[in-house]
Fold each of these.
Amino acid sequence: MESSIVFTISRLSLSPSSKPQALPFQPWKHRTPPPQPPTRVHCHKMYVPGHGASPEKTAAKHLHHFFNFVAVKIVAAQLQSYNPEAYEELMEFVERHPLNDGDKFCADLMRESSRHQKLALRIMEVRSAYCKEDFEWDNLKKVASKMMDESNTRLLRNYIMETSCLDKVK
Amino acid sequence: MESSIVFTISRLSLSPSSKPQALPFQPWKHRTPPPQPPTRVHCHKMYVPGHGASPEKTAAKHLHHFFNFVAVKIVAAQLQSYNPEAYEELMEFVERHPLNDGDKFCADLMRESSRHQKLALRIMEVRSAYCKEDFEWDNLKKVASKMMDESNTRLLRNYIMETSCLDKVK
């Protein structure tokens, strides 16, 4: 059983007025220095345009919904063993309500019935504990960095193999 | 302009054989100790069932696509100021190709033309640098924790206000 968690983020909203503040990659075609204030001297980070919220906040928002999803799984697994009735109620609710918006899911669950309200409170407690205690944040960074290296290597390798084959055919 | 980044994750795949290993929340209805091996004694984490990959790996996968999206924004902003032709080409490609799968986006971009290939290599370089150097991982944890507290408080406050109003009407 698969579920889609949809995260909507603004897409390349580069308004004409947005000013790139750093060009650390291959700055060919050098022009005369543009008439910009020298504020970028002390910032070594790449300029991310068009983000109303910081990238960190956007990422945290995505993770927020993910933690809610994980909390529902945790609570469901706990209930399955010692409270089958509550488990069935939760699963029936999950079937009817998408998990892509964690807060809306909890708000709806809370208003379904007094029994569902208890489930919602428990999910909220679990998602908070999971976010603050159980989730391995350091590991997340390691896994993401490793994934990035592997993906870049795989993309390049596949491309080189593909073009090499084409050359041979020619 | 809005774009949906769709992350598909398995949904509550609780097989009957899955064994909840920790019940840290309100363990009412205590039964006699189940005949399980005492392996859970040393694990204080909540049991997350049905995850083929670890939650950290699933979250890293989501972030991987997000970093690709951010890299496209960064590169586009850089090009906009000193290479308008390349900027136009990139934006035209973005219009035709979704950004929900970062690796597929780069693979397709690489195969579009030799000019697009250079753009793809640059995006791959930027997304790697962004993930490892620019993205504020410590801040991500702080923002996510704060967001969790605020969301839970807001959900409870709204519910209490709603039910209080209903009581007054009665």
Amino acid sequence: MTVPPKPHAPLTLKRLLIGEPLPTRALAHQTVNRVIGLAVFASDALSSTAYATEEILIILAMAGLSASVLGLSIPIAVAISVLLAIVAISYRQTIYAYPNGGGAYIVARDNLGELPAQIAGAALLTDYILTVAVSISAGVAQITSGLPELTPYRVEIAVGIILLMTIINLRGVRESGFIFSIPTYFFLTVMFVTLGIGVVRILTGSLPTVAGVEPMHHVAEPLTLFLVLRAFSSGCAAMTGVEAISNGITAFKEPRSRNAASTLVWMAVILIILFLGITLLAHQIEAVPSEVETVISQIGRTVHGQGSALYALTLGGTTLILLMAANTSYAGFPRLAALQAGDGFLPRQLTQRGNRLVFSWGIAALALLASAFVIVMGARTTALIPLYAIGVFLSFTISQTGMAVHMRKIGRLKPGERVQGLEAMLEYDPRWRVKMLISTFGAICTGIVMLVFAVTKFTAGAWFVVVLIPALVLLFFRIHYHYKDVAKALSLRQTRPDVHAYSVQTLILVDGVHAETVRVVNFAKSLGHPWKALHVAVNPQKAEKARADWGRYIGEGEFVVIPSPFRALTGPIREYVQNIMDEKPDTFVHVIMGHLVMDTFWEQALHQNSALIFNLALGDLDRVVVTMVPYQIHRNGGAKPNHAKDKAPEGVGMHAPAAEDAPDGSDQ
Amino acid sequence: MTVPPKPHAPLTLKRLLIGEPLPTRALAHQTVNRVIGLAVFASDALSSTAYATEEILIILAMAGLSASVLGLSIPIAVAISVLLAIVAISYRQTIYAYPNGGGAYIVARDNLGELPAQIAGAALLTDYILTVAVSISAGVAQITSGLPELTPYRVEIAVGIILLMTIINLRGVRESGFIFSIPTYFFLTVMFVTLGIGVVRILTGSLPTVAGVEPMHHVAEPLTLFLVLRAFSSGCAAMTGVEAISNGITAFKEPRSRNAASTLVWMAVILIILFLGITLLAHQIEAVPSEVETVISQIGRTVHGQGSALYALTLGGTTLILLMAANTSYAGFPRLAALQAGDGFLPRQLTQRGNRLVFSWGIAALALLASAFVIVMGARTTALIPLYAIGVFLSFTISQTGMAVHMRKIGRLKPGERVQGLEAMLEYDPRWRVKMLISTFGAICTGIVMLVFAVTKFTAGAWFVVVLIPALVLLFFRIHYHYKDVAKALSLRQTRPDVHAYSVQTLILVDGVHAETVRVVNFAKSLGHPWKALHVAVNPQKAEKARADWGRYIGEGEFVVIPSPFRALTGPIREYVQNIMDEKPDTFVHVIMGHLVMDTFWEQALHQNSALIFNLALGDLDRVVVTMVPYQIHRNGGAKPNHAKDKAPEGVGMHAPAAEDAPDGSDQ
């Protein structure tokens, strides 16, 4: 038998903010095309061009501000671009190999096992959280450098932006995709205009060098290979966010793999052009790293002229893309958390889709954790940066190692052979050797970059991530073993279940005797098993009154008074129940009590709600079942049926009378 | 039938901090004698001598530092002492008239009605909270002036002291009385030694004037009557705390009234002697108010000599009594809150005595509210002082007005007549006219002081109390009407209760089919009413698997799948239940579901606990009873009886098997 559903939609604050619930069948339609997909999944990667060149120059400047030293930024940027191309090609292979959602987690799970997969998961989740914290802190810093009077409220502004972003994302990916595509394309437009004008002015010989920049002060260091490596690893910040598309394949319209792969290629090409272009222009205008002016600003005012509208648009677009980069994590974190939760390594609730078909728990968890980082670090970007990017490079390394193993598997197949693997179809590919080499080379490169990162930034904060990721992996496995233990305890496969009836002893817990008590007694009588009433005598006078009222108003059934010299409520009941269970080993003890239900939380808080306390206190006893019989009290002062159609029978057992006196019966 | 109680006492942190539970019969013994009563109830009043003289001098100094101006402090102190004597005499009358606990609240309730009583209650509760916040902040300020490196942690220290004081008070009044009597008597000893030596040195002509004090800077004001009145009202801070004994009569050993009255007289005498003595000595040594040195310190070093041990003891004793003054509120607040809660104007929970027979909820509420004031105000005494004392004088005024009405009632009796009043015995007293005049005069004086207070300190913070007290009174009445409404709805006095059995329709909510499901089915079968199983198809694949498993493992009963296109759990069940209720108006709908019970909160949080959600969601439906059947999962991975004596029957319905496979049955 199947009952047809009915819509039921009172307008609440939740509905206003989040939107109408979407049916599950809308899931297939809740996807994005390539244009919006680029905006949703690439804003993190693209935004890193706003600071990657500067990070290289900051390290190189330690060895001096001469053009020959800072000029090393160009080969470094080319090397990073090559690495980026390798990683992008490797991820493109992943997108085709794992069309149901790839990313480091699934690739590692399929090819390397549970432990590497969980390490990749921990690394990526950490970095998603940090992306939100870093990007929004950096964006707020841009706002507060323009409006210094807002500086004392930077934490509040950052948390406010996180809240706004959370609401937008809870509405669902398509709408948030549309909203977030505007700033991404705005940023791309102004950056390409800036690069274009810059190139034209170079060709016409009209581009001046930057003037009036106060360079950073550094203790001069020798130009060693280590320093160049450090500059290289710092510049690799440009690569954060590249993995977002392969994690989010399922968010793309069909054909998913082709759309996602094409978006990835576009993103990589745009990223490399922007990154190389900015680095070249910076070199051309002889930009130097400065405490007070970003390299983007130096480029902007040199190309467009100080005070021009295009200069302001360049800065504005950069600020916006930094804020929007955080949105990549809102797409990536909940999906990855749902995957891990589905495997039983994170709480199962993360797999549930909310009203708007998004993973609401994951979005909420990301918002809370990122807000915590922002609050603890006081929304200071400099404090967050050293924690950042290690996780991404760890996941790059694991993912590409996994793809190398995957290609080795394919190499073992006969030509033309197709085998169904755990996650995807394995199909012979004559180019498996080349692909395996690309992935292996990428894994080695990103692994080295990660190690350089961790070593050079360890004392500045990277130690926290080095400790956090193993701790998270440990937690994930503890959760996993818990779920496994529970599943084992609940399994029916090994035994013939013994379905049969037991005897039942009903106990009614009575405080005072009033209309609610009558309802509880009626329910106990309706069940038809042997029953008696228990009263815990916290107050002996009240116990006597309850006994007298019982005789007067109920007049049947045994009324047992249990003394409680220490005024405990649950202890004496537990003992009484335990004694019954000892006497009758094949009996369910069914404890029934009334529970006054109020209209509001505050009204409810004015009552003792002892039913809830008993439920918790007796829940750990085997064979004891606790039932609360609700009795609704409404604000007009009467108990009434809550529904117009609800025709209750006559009598106080279902309806309370409108009596004028005020007995002390409400004290529970 | 009465079951004998058994002691059950696992050692917990609570037991370690608070002590062993005390039986209710110990209540009568948990009282204090006069010596400890003075320390418990008088430390607030006595501590105010530490700053009352200084408060007078600060106001007078606005008109200049000449001896003729500052000398006005002596007639002002005498006037305050007379007022204090009048108030003390009035409260002594109250103690005899209301031997079961007097104080402004009961006197007002008995003579003036509900509204004045609640105003007095709101005023006193506010002032108890402020007493804790002010006294502890002032005490911490003394500590941090001695140890300036602790200044950044003043809020933490203040909250820590509140916590310590809370634990001591949760242990019970007798123990806390003993602990707190030490600093009170230490303070009294050093102050009387100081006054004694001072008087001897005056008589022998060897007391010098104070040297080296940097006076406060003030814009000189003319010496007006208003300024003198302001100085008078500031000095009236000496009177805060006088009402504590009459509120706490029941804490005294029998004969309560005589012990309490005698303690009150002792307190008033000591207070007047100290206050006048300090004011006289201050005048003699020509003390001036200063930003950097208190008047007590000026007296101490002039009488004992700079750097002497007695000077240090004087300052130490003053610091201690300031901290201990807060303890008066720990005695007063919970008692008054319990009184008001007993009348239904505050949550009923405040009337419950905890393990150690004290009103634990009241103590906790006081600690939380005082901590909130300390945290919000940054533990700065100067910010808190203007809020303080208005409440006390409002309650003085109400209380003495009530006593005047009380005496008028007595005056209407015939000589020798005795009438039982609401709160106390009314007995003719030939001196009723004098007593009535004393109370009336006291009420007028304290009323004027209160108005002067409120007017002169309004903008400095008194406005908050002027707004807060009416708001509290409004809240108290809202709570009161709520309790009255509930009592009316539950009353059985006007109707013959209809005790009889109804039919019952049992519904089992099933997620997956596993060992817990078997137990739920067994319980439903044991109840013996018509039953069917419901599954909410949030995930259609899971629904199909559940239906198949049901057939395989349970094999009986109807299995109904309810579609849920919007993935809601409770909505579809509500509708289904509502339809049954519409069809069968004389039936209880009994919803049964399993609930996995874990060992720890964190394990519990890994499961959906949908049983709790359903309980909340269906609790407002009339005639619907929700039962959770607990199924215990223990950490070793199996379900087992929780108690050695608990002999469960054979079969999976009570015990889970130790199966090796891991089905997905744990996802609820």
